[in-house]
Amino acid sequence: MTQRIDRPDDEFLDDPYFESERALPPNAVFDATLLRQSVRALPARHPLVFAPQHTVAEAMRAMQKEHRGCVLVTEDGSPETRVVGIFTERDVLFRIIDRGQNPTRMPLAEVMTREPECLPVEASVAWVLNKMSVGGFRHIPVVSVRDVIQLLVDRFPREILNLPPIWGGDVPRAREGA
What we know:
CATH class of the domain at 41-161: Alpha Beta
């Protein structure tokens, strides 16, 4: 018997492409110029910024509330100072939960990734994708994979959102039997 868990209707609908009232742009054809555009072309979201002495629990609450996968850690917790670390949902899994740590008292400085690779706003979308793929990063200060995906969905909704429900489902198959 399966147990039903009641959740708020929008708890897992944090991705904009699930919104039913979203205005779709006119049909677009993939163009390599998109990859040469600056990261400024991506949807802008203000980063969640914390100081190294803030607790892991504070960062986790902010990430959950804002539906984000990471927070940036700056020298003094303000966006105007240098980024000294990044704390992601993977850090929660592998550096907190997996090690049995208590997030309510642990400062971010103990578990953040120090000196993360950052990209300037002049970097192209292609450079961001390259850096994320080659480096194995899910988040890069200035832009995250979710922002890149959102850009592609916004530009090419027909090609991305109208795929068959099963991968390869649009490929005709030979009939079996007589």
